[in-house]
Amino acid sequence: MKQPTAEAITHLRKRIHIIIEGTDTRLGKLFDIVLLIAILASVAVVMLDSVLYMRLQYGTLFFYAEWFFTILFTIEYLLRLFSAPNRLRYIFSFFGIVDLLSVLPSYLSLVFVGVQYLLVVRILRILRVFRVLKLKAYMQQAGFLASALRTSQQKITVFFLSLVLLVTIFGSVIYVVEGPENGFTSIPLSIYWAIVTMTTVGYGDMSPKTPIGQAIASMVMITGYSIIAVPTGIFTSELARNMRPQLQPITCPNCGKFGHAVNATFCDRCGHSLHV
Amino acid sequence: MKQPTAEAITHLRKRIHIIIEGTDTRLGKLFDIVLLIAILASVAVVMLDSVLYMRLQYGTLFFYAEWFFTILFTIEYLLRLFSAPNRLRYIFSFFGIVDLLSVLPSYLSLVFVGVQYLLVVRILRILRVFRVLKLKAYMQQAGFLASALRTSQQKITVFFLSLVLLVTIFGSVIYVVEGPENGFTSIPLSIYWAIVTMTTVGYGDMSPKTPIGQAIASMVMITGYSIIAVPTGIFTSELARNMRPQLQPITCPNCGKFGHAVNATFCDRCGHSLHV
Amino acid sequence: MKQPTAEAITHLRKRIHIIIEGTDTRLGKLFDIVLLIAILASVAVVMLDSVLYMRLQYGTLFFYAEWFFTILFTIEYLLRLFSAPNRLRYIFSFFGIVDLLSVLPSYLSLVFVGVQYLLVVRILRILRVFRVLKLKAYMQQAGFLASALRTSQQKITVFFLSLVLLVTIFGSVIYVVEGPENGFTSIPLSIYWAIVTMTTVGYGDMSPKTPIGQAIASMVMITGYSIIAVPTGIFTSELARNMRPQLQPITCPNCGKFGHAVNATFCDRCGHSLHV
Amino acid sequence: MKQPTAEAITHLRKRIHIIIEGTDTRLGKLFDIVLLIAILASVAVVMLDSVLYMRLQYGTLFFYAEWFFTILFTIEYLLRLFSAPNRLRYIFSFFGIVDLLSVLPSYLSLVFVGVQYLLVVRILRILRVFRVLKLKAYMQQAGFLASALRTSQQKITVFFLSLVLLVTIFGSVIYVVEGPENGFTSIPLSIYWAIVTMTTVGYGDMSPKTPIGQAIASMVMITGYSIIAVPTGIFTSELARNMRPQLQPITCPNCGKFGHAVNATFCDRCGHSLHV
């Protein structure tokens, strides 16, 4: 076979890239749908494989199916790598790492006997669904949510820091008050109890038995119950602010100020008329 | 008996329709109240019939009562069908299906021995209460709520998709870390645990025993505890936006002010009439 | 003793009324503080009396203390009745009923042997604290909260109606799917489970064991987890609306329209200048 | 050694104060980082010391480490005391008390055999992290949150008072209905159950068994589930209000428009200068 020219390779790379990344061509759309079905099917196989009754019945089928999908996704990964404009950037991008982790465990299982760990990672393939679907309206709305999260990230950090301090102090206090004889066998475990209680999950595997312990637990519960208001308030006010009527995106012809009130006719910085 | 003329049938249909659907006439109001009492009574019968102590004592009474209500609602269904302007549209409407499912189980129980399934469906009859009551103010307020839900439906879908991904990943990780010996017998069951934990319900039938598992569980709990802020923020900002006073998007022909109150007829800046 | 004149009685009534209801006089303030201490003390006695260890040790002391407080509050009730401007209105007012229920159980215990019932009602005396304290700023803020609740009461009713329907349907479905052998022994009990789960309390005394049941439970949990957004959104948007900048409280001299936009100089209904 | 002059002491005090409190100098920054690492390390030692397996293995190491940190923090406390401009004010400030409580338990353990109590207090040292980090943007955001909490403190107090009344009444009622034979052994314990249920934590260690008790429990759950809306609404509306752009309360001398943007120098309606 004649050696392919650099031109032919570049041309092939572009064509594959259009099929994989693009959704406008018929082949691109077909690729996306097949990929989506393959992801969902492979995840279903992993989940069913963990059910003992199912593994006993269909274990061999699952084994071959898992390797089929692994080979399929490996080929897909190599194609993406081959056709990517910037290979290093792809390898270290979020989806690049997800795609690699989606096939690596199967190969690792040939060396290590920790099959379960492999199963976990294949579930991550489901994250490709977001990129494959590419629904414009949904991605715009997701953008609104992400934007609100970004602008409030400092308030959120302050909140989380306070949470960490609260559960540490509450956990230590309940450890001292209740002690190992009531189930609180160490401070780390008591901090775990404080998290379970403050998030109002309340498993019940550990609960205070002494009156003082129950009084402290009441404080933990009411604190957790009330401060749910904080992240909600932060997020809601940011989202509402993003949705409020925006400034007129015009520039004052005189002083250059950008952005004026909705009903302004004169620039409030220099007094010049906004509409010449 | 003389064969009824087409005119007579149409006239009868209209009269029955007015009684069933309308609430203005005395007969219409009486029909609605009788129907409401019948629905509530039949649902109460079904509920009491499921209590063993009650069934032993009043089983026969319940049996006859259930068939009485079934016959009653069957006649009502046939009357609605007969008087409906568009029969196909009624059969496939939400209430048409509910009305059919409210009587079908009783007849099915003659063939199949799954009496309990029938009981479930009769409970749905309670949904007729909404249509029967027809309280204008309440329906308007319900409309506000429904409207806020509709306009935020894309953000809500993004949120739910994220929830599904989170519980799938968390469930798989905890399955690998804890394993069947600690109660996490399969990935689907572990995903169930992740939902129980992330929604902060926390039954306690399954809870992590290893330190790493408890650390992961802590992440699940704090995630679930915090992201309640998202649907709340979405819904609150949409509802607040709907409740803000809207401006008429018109310009004053005299002074050029854009945006006037909903029921304004004069410009509140210069006094000129808005409608020349 | 000379028979008291009508004038003397009226004068006495007024004086007692000032002491009891008013907080301006020194005697009135003293009365309030003594009453507050008496309420809290009597409630503490009732609570301690229910602890077995305490009752064995101090039972007699509690018995005498309870009767002391009952006599005290009976005298207070009679004084209020005597000095009230409108006796019938007081008897049937909220606090009138609370005051009566705060002493009645003790007398009833002489006839009936349900002492515990009596204990419950004495706890209600603590509601007098609100009226006794009379802190102006707090009552104004409480007024804001109550006002927001009132204006959103129709939306709240729609929400509660939906909750009732949801738990009824979910409860019936889980009863059919899980059945008595899994703990779901009747439809009412299953509805109780649905409430426990949808409010995310999750005791764990009843939890689904079948996969279908767990799938349905997941729907219940995610529904309950998400629709917390609804009452929160309703209440938050009402409260925010109450706090928004208000209209100018002026009347148009020409057409009489009350309430104009913050920066309006002309009436937007008739065009007349607002500032003559 | 020559006796140090008052001047030398003052100079030393100032130098130490700059190192301890200031973060601009290199020595100051180094001090902060070393302190932060020491705090986190000492807290980790306390936590690990409570784990039995760890204490058996490394008990001696922990003992020496704890005394090392205690000596270190004692020296730090004395240095702060020595260099503080106002010593009394430091001793009784929040951090002054925390710093003292962070070393006192170790010395108390020489007298009393309640070692666990000491462990609790050392955890509080972690609160120094906030002061040490001094991140401007985060402290500003924290200020926003704290400000919203302050302005809504009266509404929050009304809310908490209502919570206390609700759990007291609910707890007493459930005690009467269920009784000691169903786990509700006293009114205080039943109030604890009411708090566990109303905050939706739901341990499951106590749950109602009688139908009436379950009906009452349902009311408690739905109440707790719904009134989460109140603190959330309070906090969200205050935070949103703080974030709304404020207007300058001045009038344009030319056209009379009231209310201009914060940094406006000209009227945006007529163009005239706002400051004559």
From TrEMBL, chains A, B, C, D:
It comes from Psychrobacter aestuarii. Its main location: membrane. This is Ion transporter. The keyword Cytoplasm does not apply. Signal peptide: none annotated. It is a multi-pass membrane protein. Keywords: Ion channel, Ion transport, Membrane, Potassium, Potassium channel, Potassium transport, Transmembrane, Transmembrane helix, Transport, Voltage-gated channel. SUPFAM superfamilies: Voltage-gated potassium channels.
